[in-house]
């Protein structure tokens, strides 16, 4: 009912008469809702004063006696023992939850508040939880993107010789691995393995480092050791499947992921790997079944939808492929491969007006690539808007003055429209081809390679522009200039243009051929003559 003051009064009475962990946790929560720092500290200290159920069974049973060892094993999981373990686990959970809750608010900074909670736990009967709390502190630093503080917190466990030191070393190894420092990651993984030879996570970290170095045999051995120590280590099984796949052992990789899928039924990463492996093996129909399972778990994943579209397209089912490509584009409209396929599909289905918006979006994403502007112009021409297509090509020509394909498209369109500009563009194309030929010959003499591109960018590399500036700086006589002009005028120009979207559609022919009638041989009746 939101009456936190009355709730705090009742909880304090219960904690005085018969304290327990759940009541202490609720009292901390009530004072947290009231934003009462002082009472939050007092409530947390009273929570730490609650006596936990002591597990004295191991202390009472003498060691070295075979009869008592058999009795210990038989009574280790009896109902009373399980109840004590559950109560102990519940108490530890309440303490750790309370510490995580109040540490950011009881002091001015999160670090100071967390340190106060750690010191309070160390001075209580639950001092074994202090290390857990410090590990959680490092994890919280990672969630806050403060990697330096997390690393410093974990390094404080280096000189300790307990289980938490091993866990800290594993976490440090993971942090360094994600940062790309494989040497440091391997160092701390070896520290974790040496302190606890049965720690599966340490072997997983070592296997990851070997996998990063492409040492597949060594990585496989580490992952198998991790599985020997802990058969339920899903990380080791997953990474072992990745190792076999990286080593081109697709069948063994499939075997590992199928085993993992029996443990993790609805894990999308595992289902995706099985689907992808079936695709590599050529089993497209089975790949579709697994991709559909992934799609059921994560229906908004654009990558899975794209994979479904690719697989259906490979099987020849264009309609289903279009459906999944459209869904992928709807969830993530910035995938160039999806945009390219959809635009190509619309062009193939003779709906170029829908492809125009797709190519325009691709051109906005990649403004320095000429192919998208040329595709927009081609689709606009297919729609029948020739003058707009001409404007687009002129704009593209001003932006990419040395692109041959754009010039050829301009020559073709101007020729179809009967414009005199076709000759000017043909002359520019002849000069550009001549300039490129000279640059190629010059680079052959100097041993410099130059790459020309008719689809992207300007079409000339920096080396070509350097040669061109050198030629311009040399004095030119009138005779050589006249020879150059004569060469430009007499050299045949290749104005053939192949549209990257395919040949244009033929215009519909609505007129019919007129019949030639010989009027001299035609007899007209008198009834048909005008009066």
TrEMBL record:
Transmembrane segments: none
Biased composition (Low complexity): 453-466
Keywords: TPR repeat
InterPro entries from the UniProt entry: TPR-like_helical_dom_sf, TPR_rpt
Annotated region described as Disordered, given as residue ranges: 436-475
Pfam families the record matches: TPR_16, TPR_6, TPR_8
Record's compositionally biased regions (Basic and acidic residues): 436-445
TPR repeat copies, ranges: 302-335
PANTHER family named among the record's database cross-references: INTRAFLAGELLAR TRANSPORT PROTEIN 88 HOMOLOG (PTHR44117:SF1)
Protein name, UniProt field: Intraflagellar transport protein 88
Organism encoding this protein: Daphnia magna
């Amino acid at each position: 009912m939101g009456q936190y003051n009355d709730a705090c009064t009742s909880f304090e009475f219960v904690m005085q008469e018969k304290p327990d962990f759940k009541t202490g946790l609720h009292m901390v929560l009530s004072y947290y809702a009231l934003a009462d720092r002082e009472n939050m500290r007092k409530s947390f200290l009273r929570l730490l004063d609650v006596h936990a159920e002591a597990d004295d069974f191991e202390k009472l049973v003498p060691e070295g006696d075979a009869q008592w060892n058999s009795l210990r094993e038989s009574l280790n999981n009896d109902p009373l023992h399980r109840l004590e373990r559950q109560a102990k686990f519940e108490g530890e959970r309440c303490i750790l939850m309370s510490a995580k809750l109040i540490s950011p608010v009881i002091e001015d900074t999160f670090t100071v508040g967390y340190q106060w909670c750690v010191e309070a736990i160390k001075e209580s009967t639950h001092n074994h939880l202090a290390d857990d709390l410090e590990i959680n502190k490092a994890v919280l630093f990672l969630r806050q993107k403060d990697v330096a503080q997390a690393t410093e917190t974990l390094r404080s466990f280096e000189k300790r010789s307990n289980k938490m030191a091993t866990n800290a070393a594993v976490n440090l190894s993971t942090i360094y691995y994600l940062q790309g420092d494989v040497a440091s990651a391997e160092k701390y993984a070896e520290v974790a393995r040496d302190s606890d030879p049965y720690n599966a996570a340490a072997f997983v970290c070592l296997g990851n480092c070997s996998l990063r170095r492409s040492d597949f045999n060594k990585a496989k051995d580490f992952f198998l050791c991790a599985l020997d120590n802990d058969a339920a280590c899903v990380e080791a099984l997953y990474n072992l499947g990745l190792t076999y796949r990286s080593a081109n052992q697709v069948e063994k990789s499939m075997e590992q992921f199928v085993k993992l899928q029996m443990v993790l039924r609805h894990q999308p990463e595992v289902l995706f790997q099985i689907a992808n492996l079936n695709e590599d093996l050529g089993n497209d129909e089975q790949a579709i079944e697994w991709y559909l399972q992934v799609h059921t778990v994560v229906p908004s994943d654009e990558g899975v939808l794209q994979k479904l579209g690719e697989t259906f397209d490979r099987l020849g089912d264009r309609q289903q492929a279009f459906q999944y490509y459209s869904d992928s584009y709807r969830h993530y409209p910035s995938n160039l491969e999806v945009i390219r396929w959809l635009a190509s599909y619309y062009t193939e289905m003779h709906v170029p007006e829908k492809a125009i918006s797709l190519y325009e979006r691709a051109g906005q994403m990649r403004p320095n690539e000429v192919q998208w502007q040329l595709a927009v112009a081609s689709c606009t021409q297919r729609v029948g808007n020739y003058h707009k297509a001409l404007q687009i090509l002129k704009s593209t020509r001003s932006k990419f003055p040395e692109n041959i394909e754009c010039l050829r498209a301009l020559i073709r369109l101007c020729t179809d429209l009967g414009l005199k500009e076709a000759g000017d563009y043909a002359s520019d194309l002849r000069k550009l081809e001549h300039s490129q030929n000279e640059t190629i010959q010059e680079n052959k003499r100097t041993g410099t390679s130059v790459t020309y591109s008719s689809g992207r960018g300007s079409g000339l590399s920096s080396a070509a522009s350097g040669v061109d500036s050198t030629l311009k700086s040399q004095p030119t006589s009138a005779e050589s200039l006249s020879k150059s002009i004569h060469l430009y005028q007499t050299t045949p120009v290749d104005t053939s243009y192949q549209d990257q979207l395919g040949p244009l559609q033929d215009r519909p022919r609505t007129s019919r051929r007129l019949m030639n009638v010989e009027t001299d041989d035609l007899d007209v009746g008198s009834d048909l003559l005008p009066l």
